[in-house]
Amino acid sequence: xxxxxxxxxxxxxxxxxxxxxxxxxxxxxxxxxxxxxxxxxxxxxxxxxxxxxxxxxxxxxxxxxxxxxxxxxxxxxxxxxxxxxxxxxxxxxxxxxxxxxxxxxxxxxxxxxxxxxxxxxxxxxxxxxxxxxxxxxxxxxxxxxxxxxxxxxxxxxxxxxxxxxxxxxxxxxxxxx
Length: 177
Description:
mainly beta; 12 strands; twelve-stranded antiparallel sheet
């Protein structure tokens, strides 16, 4: 499976592993297809996406005065995804621009949870993120990302999940502080 090939199936994204600073991204059969690398002491909420061998394939960072845009780029500088949060409803109303320029809408599916999302292209749902752990666990942002149509690549899906995870954590921190 190539990370940049169109993808259908489920990606499992466990929350960060503290000692290593990375967490695996796996298929349903347990095969690791990538790793998310966390940068803990950064103002711009940086993260990296590594291939199974540990090579950097994409890097994400927040942009703007209020971190309303999350941009993920390849080492060459090419866009992988750009997540623009909505103004009144940051998640439900966010727009994602994929590498090829296609846009995808983000829909928060629960008013009580900031851990469930659906995605639509041209008004047609094609994917969803659901939590795989309880909200009160030590790893509340462990996700399953199910894609039912080949709208995006695995790398775009991993990048989007991590950008959303980062944005939600930033909103939680702002609300509690």
